[in-house]
Specification:
The protein is mainly β. The protein contains five helices and 35 strands. The chain has a 22-stranded antiparallel beta barrel. It has a five-stranded mixed sheet with strand order 3-8-9-6-7. The N terminus is likely disordered.
């Protein structure tokens, strides 16, 4: 039954294709939607002309009622979100089948991937969207733009500039309460704002069992931040952000002797700081940026496999942007230095670093054809150097059609944990690891109606990864080490579209087919469903707005078994009481389906929440 529902949803999604919700109650009028710009490409680019690019704006986040990043990222085709238990469980992203450590995560340009995590991945479980203004996603190898860790793609979060007072409060199922307060002032020459938010829940049992697990695993997180800018001369300004978060939660572990998820007293705690400062000025006909960014994090797990990790990273970057040939050429070039440090399970501290130079250029060959190229050289302190490149083009075919394509290469140096073989056991010397490399090709065909009310795009791609690093366990010798797999491949199709239906209604649909395999063994890669799709019907009226989202995933190979297909539904709404006060409500898992994102770990049943939102 689940499979038939899933396939019906997927088939429905492919009839259209996607993203953005209704914006105003008078969408019956014919009006061309504004072109959406993505800036994580180093050079500002139009999304429709950029293969693999998507943007989720603040209005969409708010209308969907998304609290954490994992709540909305799963709707992106070709992107898989896995969470090992509700609320406190680790939440990771796989883009186009690539392992979590191959997705680079940026917050205001600061790389926030965890240098002490096994794969160097980012944990999305407690990432609060309250201060986020937009999310930009670039699928496919972006190493030529951002260096190591961007083989699968890039997810870039931009925080909001606050002008006035904003406050939110919400309460609901599982004894959940959430609050947020933000205050700021924004003028033409300067801006300064600060915010703080808190989330608490008694949760559910993270371990899923047919007869139910009685223990509730709670979770709490606090986030705060400051953002400011100041223009001290014409064409010159400074900008800075500081973001802090701390979370603590209960987990269910894999206790002996059978090592499967079960109720335990395991706990996890984490704290992270991130900060950045930028000087922007014009000189010698170029717009320059000098920036310094840093993260510092600590995470500790208590239980059968207790461990504490600390890590920090500093990135120093110079970038300059300009134009040439009567504005037919845009270009940017730069250099950066990244230094990572991590203390692992043994308590030993290790360091890594990389020095890089890069350049990106876009040529407008004709009014209908644009070509973009990028080249980057990375020199690591421990694993040699690598040169990566990317070439893309967009061709306006008339009648609303745009044909675009891209070819790119990527590389990823072993993480600190992999390089020192943390958690390894072997009578033989540990294998000497090689950096992972990748190449990818994609082709996209997009279409927009003349009035901009209907948009669609279909993308086909192939991603090859050579020397992928994985952890292996030998059942005979009991050796446990990291090794380079020969190669993996992902073939995929991504369909997305949006239709403004009139009367304030908007339909957003997405579908991804992802065939990710280990080319050495022929086995499917774990935690990458072959089929996944979503459909969102949004409505915006004069005082009422809402969104109904249906999301489906097919069967998924996982450690220990097959995670079954599921369909889940969410509903959110808001009522504008006065221009400054709105009441909100949302229901997650509306149909009360039993499902798992990761094999062995449960997700909440039907849950409801009500709240109030203030804007002054």
């Amino acid at each position: 039954m689940k499979r038939s529902i899933l396939l019906s949803t997927v088939a429905f999604a492919t009839l259209f294709a996607l993203p953005a919700l209704a914006r105003s109650p008078d969408d019956d009028r014919t009006a061309i939607l504004p072109e959406v710009i993505v800036t994580a490409t180093r050079l500002p680019a139009i999304v429709a002309d950029t293969p693999g690019a998507r943007v989720i704006d603040a209005a969409t986040i708010e209308q969907r009622g998304a609290i954490f990043a994992a709540d909305i990222l799963a709707d992106i085709p070709g992107l898989s979100v896995t969470r090992s238990g509700a609320f406190a469980g680790i939440a990771q992203v796989r883009m186009r089948g690539a392992a979590p450590g191959k997705t680079l995560v940026l917050v205001d340009g600061v790389p926030v991937n965890d240098p002490s995590e096994i794969n160097g991945a980012f944990d999305f479980s407690g990432f609060d969207l309250g201060d986020i203004d937009r999310i930009e996603l670039l699928s496919g190898p972006q190493s030529s733009l951002w260096g190591s860790a961007a083989i699968g793609g890039v997810i870039a979060f931009t925080t909001r500039e606050i002008d006035g007072l904003r406050a939110e409060a919400e309460a609901g199922s599982f004894d959940t309460v959430r609050g947020r307060l933000a205050l700021g002032r924004a003028e033409e020459a300067w801006a300064l704002g600060a915010w703080v938010s808190r989330f608490d829940t008694a949760g559910i049992s993270a371990a899923d069992a047919a007869d139910g697990n009685p223990e509730r695993d709670g979770f709490g997180s606090t986030s705060a931040g400051v953002r400011g800018r100041y223009r001290f001369a014409p064409g010159a300004r400074v900008e800075g952000t500081v973001r802090w978060s701390r979370s603590a939660g209960d987990l269910d572990g894999n206790p002996p002797p059978i090592y499967v998820p079960a109720d335990t007293a395991d706990t996890t705690e984490s704290e992270q700081w991130s900060a950045s400062g930028r000087l922007l000025f014009a000189a010698a006909g170029l717009d320059h940026q000098l920036s310094v960014s840093a993260i510092d994090l600590t995470r500790a797990n208590q239980g059968n496999f207790a461990s504490t990790f600390t890590a920090d990273r500093q990135v120093y970057r110079w970038q300059a942007t300009g134009t040439a040939l009567a504005d037919r050429v845009d270009f940017t070039l730069g250099a950066e230095r990244e230094e990572d440090r991590a203390a692992l399970s043994t308590g030993a501290t290790e360091r890594m670093g990389v020095t890089s130079v890069f350049g990106v250029s876009r040529l407008q060959v004709s009014p209908r054809l644009g070509v973009t190229g990028a080249l980057r050289r990375d020199e690591t302190d421990d694993f040699g150097g690598a040169t990566t490149g990317r070439l893309s083009a967009a061709w306006d075919l008339d009648a609303g059609f745009i044909l675009s394509g891209a070819w790119g290469t990527g590389f990823k140096a072993p993480s600190i944990s992999q390089a020192v073989c943390d958690y390894c056991i072997s009578a033989s010397p540990f294998p000497v690891l090689r950096p992972e490399t990748a190449d990818s090709v994609e082709l996209a065909l997009g279409w927009s109606s003349a009035d901009g009310r209907v948009r669609a795009r279909a993308t086909a791609y192939r991603l090859n990864v050579e020397d992928q690093i994985t952890y292996v366990f030998d059942l005979v010798s009991f050796d446990s080490v990291y090794v380079n797999i020969d190669r993996t491949r992902t073939d995929g199709v991504e369909l997305e579209g949006q239709a403004l239906l009139g009367g304030g209604l908007a339909l957003t649909l997405a579908y991804g087919w992802t065939d990710a395999t280990d080319r050495t063994t022929g086995a499917r890669l774990l935690r990458v469903p072959e089929h996944a799709g979503s459909a969102t019907l949004g409505w915006t009226g004069a005082r009422l707005s809402g969104a109904l989202t249906v999301r489906a995933e097919g069967d998924q190979d996982d450690a220990g078994g097959v995670r079954q297909a599921f369909v889940t539904t969410g509903l959110s709404g808001a009522w504008i009481v006065t221009p400054a006060v709105s009441l909100t409500a949302r229901v997650d898992n509306l149909t009360d389906r039993h499902f798992q994102q990761v094999f062995g770990y449960g997700e909440p049943g039907r849950a409801g929440y009500v709240g109030v939102r203030l804007r002054y």
